[in-house]
Structure formats: structure tokens, C-alpha cells
Design brief:
Blueprint (H helix, E strand, L loop, with lengths): L2 E6 L2 E9 L4 H12 L6 H18 L8 E13 L4 E11 L22 H8 L2 E7 L2 E13 L2
Antiparallel strand pairs: 1-2, 2-3, 3-4, 4-6, 5-6
Helix pairs in contact: 1-2, 2-3
């Protein structure tokens, strides 16, 4: 596993590879929590990205023995606005090894089903999300945003 830090103006970007095993979802949360300490909407990021990691492990070739996936995160702070708030954004990309199905929020169905809620949860916690790629590899991206008073 590797962790790469790329310093950029206004924020930092980190990238880490994870094994495609179920216990790695916990490691993804730990990784993000350590990087985003002080983020005003950390719980939303953790919940949304946990769903992405679990979906990657369950529904793509990354979850097969020897499979891997990469999580990349960018956190930056925009300048203070007129109201004295510092706007923040966190963008997370999860790259997998592909699979037969495209990421989609299920339509209709059983509202009490235990499965099929991952991307719906992501849509509720993220400002925006989307994906690109094909059956040989996909990247799901989510943007989390908020603002808070500067201490």
C-alpha cells in the first residue's frame, strides 16, 4: 500500500491504494479521518466514501482475490467570503478494476431493502457525484462541500 501526498495551492491531495477485501472499508474511513481532521462535514464524507468503498469491494473486480482500488482525496479551503465564512470542499475519487454493471441508484423497489442504498446514501451526503469508465475500470467521484465561520 502506498500513500502519496501532492501539495497544491489552497489544499492538499492524497492518494492511497487498498486491497479489495471487506475489512479495507474500515481502513478507508481511518485514512480519511486522519487526513480531514477539522473538516466541518467529516461525517458526511466518511459515510459517503464508506458506501463507495463497500460498493467497490462488492460489485467490481477489485473485490476479487488480489484486487485493489485507489482512493484519492482533495481538500481545500476557499477564501473567506463577505459573511466571514471559509468555504471548504472535499473531492474524493474511488478507482476500481471494473465490473459488468454501471453505478446507478436503483429506481423503485423495496424501500426497506437492505441492499441497493449505497449510491442513494452518497447522493444524500455529497453535493454532487458521478462516474466515468467502463467494464475494465471505473472511477466514481463525489464532491462534498460546506462552509463554516472561521475560528
Amino acid at each position: 500500500m502506498f500513500v502519496e501526498l501532492v501539495e497544491e495551492e489552497g489544499g492538499d491531495r492524497w492518494r492511497r491504494e487498498f486491497a479489495g477485501a471487506p475489512e479495507e472499508a474500515r481502513e478507508v474511513r481511518r485514512f480519511l479521518r486522519s487526513l480531514l481532521e477539522g473538516c466541518a462535514f467529516l461525517d458526511d464524507v466518511l459515510l459517503g466514501v464508506d458506501e463507495l468503498a463497500v460498493n467497490t469491494i462488492r460489485h467490481t473486480r477489485s473485490g476479487r482475490p488480489g484486487g485493489k482500488f485507489v482512493v484519492e482525496v482533495r481538500w481545500w479551503h476557499e477564501p473567506q467570503d463577505e459573511a466571514g465564512r471559509k468555504n471548504e470542499k472535499v473531492v474524493v475519487w474511488v478507482r476500481d478494476e471494473g465490473g459488468p454493471h454501471e453505478p446507478a441508484i436503483p429506481s423503485g423497489g423495496d424501500e426497506f431493502a437492505e441492499n441497493g442504498r449505497g449510491l442513494l446514501t452518497l447522493a444524500c451526503t455529497a453535493e454532487n457525484w458521478g462516474w466515468f469508465g467502463d467494464e475494465s475500470g471505473r472511477t466514481v467521484c463525489a464532491v462534498f462541500a460546506g462552509c463554516r465561520p472561521i475560528p
